[in-house]
Amino acid sequence: MRYLSLLFLLALCLSACQVEQDKSTTEAKAIQVNHAPLKAKQVIDRIKEQVTCEWAAKTVDTFKEGNEESPVTGIASTFLATYDVLKRAHAAGLNMVITHEPTYYNHLDETAFFEEDPVFQKKRDFIRDNNMIVFRFHDHWHRTQPDGISLGMKERLGWTDYEIRPNDLIFKLPTQSLQALADYLQERFQATSVRVVGPKDMEISKVGFSMGSPGSRAQIGILRMEEVEVLVGGETLEWETVEYVRDAQAQGRKKALILLGHANSEEAGMAYCAEWLKGFISEVPVQFIPAGDPFWTPAAPK
Ligand SMILES: [Zn+2]
User: What's the domain count of the chain?
Assistant: First the structure.
């Protein structure tokens, strides 16, 4: 009997040891999981969780280069993955670039037209040779509420106190001349290519802002509004929106246009994107890398 209880005790002890051992193995596994390198796919899965909109089946927000299983050493957010931005990201040890606009010079990043093109080849090879990952984050950054680009841009414009229709980016500013508004924007954005259609001394206060390149119909739709005298936008087809404004002025209407350039009109939204990403990515550094204004103009005001 005594012998049996001893055996029983021994068995109990052994199973307790086993439990301890299992526990420590589980803990080790947990630690291992925490230290496993962050994969590109995990970054995108987290982005999908964080946006307020459904992830669309048809979207340009896809991997343009790199493998989704690749480990991420750091993330650069940018308006556009230019060759220069890619080099700066690589030098900073950031191998994943999240870009708002295309990498390969067309909306769908189609490469067939560029296969033999030396500029394209050098860019693609740089990305591949350095095991970089490029992901476009355009549609869903605009669709999430509030629109990520518009949030960053409102801050950058410095007009948050003047919003009269926040969702439409319509502002009522202190009355000033068109020249003063253009000067303010040039200074604020350190822009090198602001272009203006309209008389310098036109007194204005009602401004509509439009990001990027939404098309002439969207831009003209804003210009038609009673609450808008000046449309501040990114880029446009010169023979559409620009000529609409020119005709409106010739008819005595108080309408003007200021074009900041596409990059200036959206870039601050990708600076904000880096801050947003840091809210749910802590394993690797996240940094905004500006692509900057690609244009310059000779100093010859009209
Ligand atoms: Zn955009």
Answer: 2
Question: 66 and 51 in one domain?
Answer: yes
State in Å: Cα 145 to ligand 1 middle: 14
Give the Å distance between the CA of 101 and the centre of ligand 1.
7
252 C-alpha to center of ligand 1: Å? 33
C-alpha to C-alpha distance for 170 and 173, rounded to whole angstroms: 10
pTM of the model: 0.85
- Taking only the tens place, the pLDDT of each residue in 91-109 is 999 999 999 999 999 999 9
Q: What is the chain's percent helix, strand, coil content, to nearest 5?
A: 45, 20, 35
**What residue numbers bound the domain in which 159 lies?**
148-260
pLDDT score at 225 = 96
CA of 103 to the centre of ligand 1 (A): 14
Q: How far is the CA of 222 from the centre of ligand 1 (A)?
A: 17
User: Residues 6 or more apart from 222 whose CB is under 8 A from it?
Assistant: 168, 208, 210, 228, 231
